[in-house]
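Q: Sequence in, structure out?
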Amino acid sequence: MKTIFWRMAGYVFATAAGLFAFGLFAAPTEEKWVSLFNGKDLSGWVAVHDVTFEVVDGNLRLVKGMGWLRTEKEYKDFILELEFRPLDERYDSGIFIRCPLEGKPWPKDGWQVNLKDVALGALVRGYSTKVPSESPRVPLNKWVKMRLEVRGKTAKLFMNGEAAWETDILDRDKGYIGIQAEDRRFDFRNIRIQEL
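A: Exactly. Output:
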């Protein structure tokens, strides 16, 4: 009886291993990324106030204006990844998260990861820095990879793979993701999100 049991267990194991080898079972931890920018046009985005964004060489270029470009839908918990590069001296932009629509030229009650030359990566609300960052200043025309993980009240920022900060002060449970325009040119690319 023991021999039959072990023989059957062996068959089951071999069959399962074969199915995995041939890809008949999906990996349980497969990531589900969604691109937020297609490299061709501004589909999925809404310009707010007086701003100009264009697609240049497959990149989303912030050209000018004071306002922001936001997603069409709101997000709650997510991982956001993107690359950015500043094109002008004294550069200043930002990535808004969980933002409402109210406010001019920017959301008055939203959170922003600052992309300013002297405060790169700082978490800002309104004009007040809530979480400083020690991320170094970036040379013009150099691409920087940013990853932001947002779960509940917690947010974690990574710049070029290095941890910049972690905080648990987020008090809005959902809102729009956006790119701040503050009359300085920036390029953005590889913008993608994974909802949690």
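The helical segments are 2-21.
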